[in-house]
Amino acid sequence: MYEKDGRRFYVVDGHIHLWDGSPANQRNQYGAGWIQCFYDYHSALSPKEWLWAKEKFDRYTSEDLMHDIFEKAGVDVAIFQPTILSEFYLDGFYRRRETAELAAEHPDKLIVNGVWDPRDGEAGLEAFEDEATKFQYQGVKLYTAEWRGDSKGYSLTDPMAYRYLEKSAELGIKNIHIHKGPTVWPLNRDAFDVHDVDDVATAFPQLNFVVEHIGLPRLEDFCWIATQESNVYAGMAVAMPFIHTRPRYFAQIMGELLYWVGEDKILFGSDYAIWEPKWLIDAFVDFQIPQDMQSEYGEISDVARAKVLGLNAARLYDLKVPSGVIGAPELAVVS
Amino acid sequence: MTRLEDVWAALATVRDPEVDRPITELGFVASVTEHDDGVHIQMRLPTYFCAPNFTYLMMDDARAAASRVAGAVHVELADHFESRRLGNGVGTGFAATFGAQADGELDAMRDRFRRKTFLIRQELLCRELEVADDRLPSLVVGDLPRSEANRDYLRIRDELGFSCAYSAPFLLAADGRPVLPEAVDRHRKAARVMALSYETNGAMCTALLEARYPTTEGAA
What we know:
The complex is a heterodimer of chains A (335) and B (220). With 335 residues, chain A is of the alpha/beta class. Chain A has helices at residues 29-45, 54-58, 62-72, 96-105, 121-135, 159-170, 195-203, 219-228, 242-245, 247-260, 277-285, 294-297, 302-316, 328-334, and strands spanning 2-4, 7-9, 12-16, 77-80, 110-112, 139-143, 175-179, 208-211, 232-235, 266-267. The longest helix of chain A is centred in the first third of the chain and has 17 residues, at 29-45. Chain B is mostly helical. Helix content of chain B is 47%, strand content 8%. In chain B, strands 1-2-3 form a three-stranded mixed β-sheet. In chain B, α1 packs antiparallel against α2, α5 packs antiparallel against α6 and α5 (107-129) crosses α7 (184-212). At the A-B interface, α1, α8 and α10 of A face α4, α5 and α7 of B.
């Protein structure tokens, strides 16, 4: 539980990683480029006192993760959103075995999401079913720009992606997290386009679609889709650190999300270890839309902050919210 | 102006289609140098993985703009996962550059972003006008101020083939049709979030480029 000035918040960090980007695990220059790119995001948007050395960033320990997220930041529950990248890393970017062990050790704190890829076809569908049953997945993380041989990505509207979504629904996996990247097939198409989310959100009303990074760099398309589809959510990872470097942009972004998407469908995420949740949460609990923007965007309440920080994710992942935190009684009435 | 200054000036007319700011202002042009085989333009981007399609557009636009003032030019891209293919392919077409990984050129994508940019520039002009929303549909092109924002706006309006005549209606949708009075509020809110998206992209690009290529301490 996070507490500040007598206000208690239930916090779910909806986007964390345990990765290995170290040179020993890099398959090629793409692996080196990927972790360097992450590190540039880290150093570009973190406050100076929160900067890590590159070697630690490449491969931090699971003790670092537990300490930074739970002890230091006061997060209640965190959700792993695995990124595989087998074309870039020998053993994959995501430390699969270690993550599973850590989650088994801390079942009340850690949730691990699954991953599927429509290009794995029918065989992959069966393997995914076995794995999902074993680990009791409640969600999956999809990275549509994942490379696979000559293929530079896929669309959610590919027929096989539909099969995997059907399977997910059948298995009771209701939270589909979508992360767009710079490549897709064909390369001349805008890979960041989120319109395929619109299509599948209509086709699968029983599933929740969390668009990670609020659709950036296509915030406008994401906002438009979220107004059309009641089962589309905003994942705040990557947009959060603007709260420090560009607070007025952050205020505008929050203002737009509150208007288009609404306070019940915005989910906090740090993208740890790109950014540490502690400073993001510290800044967010005191964040307010600046006075000169309030005629356009209104204000943000403590209850809205509480929803973004944890109550909305608690609803999606059936988490028990303790009494005594801001917004908890209201949630009980709603559900 | 020297020949290299002419090239820099030409490059300043090339914009990042996702940001609508000149590539020179964003720091994407690392150097322009004279060689025996023509002018070499060295570009660099905020990330190793910047999307190949938008990257190709900017490199090809840079090539076209620079060659109009300097003849033979070579555009190269540093530190990118497709540096080699993009450097060799620029000028030959996107499909030729990426073979089976593409199924056509970038015209549709360019048109889509040109229309977004049009809406954003129109929205910025609305803010400059300080006119009540209900009056906007009755304004014509001739009512617009003689400002830089308006010059940028009219240029893209013209590129899209929308009339720039004095009596042509001002406030248009992305397809060129006038915005009806009852649709103005929704239209402007959609344009507002589009403008914010572009500004956020620009802020992200600038921050990442600075992390990747720090400006020397003490430099301007």
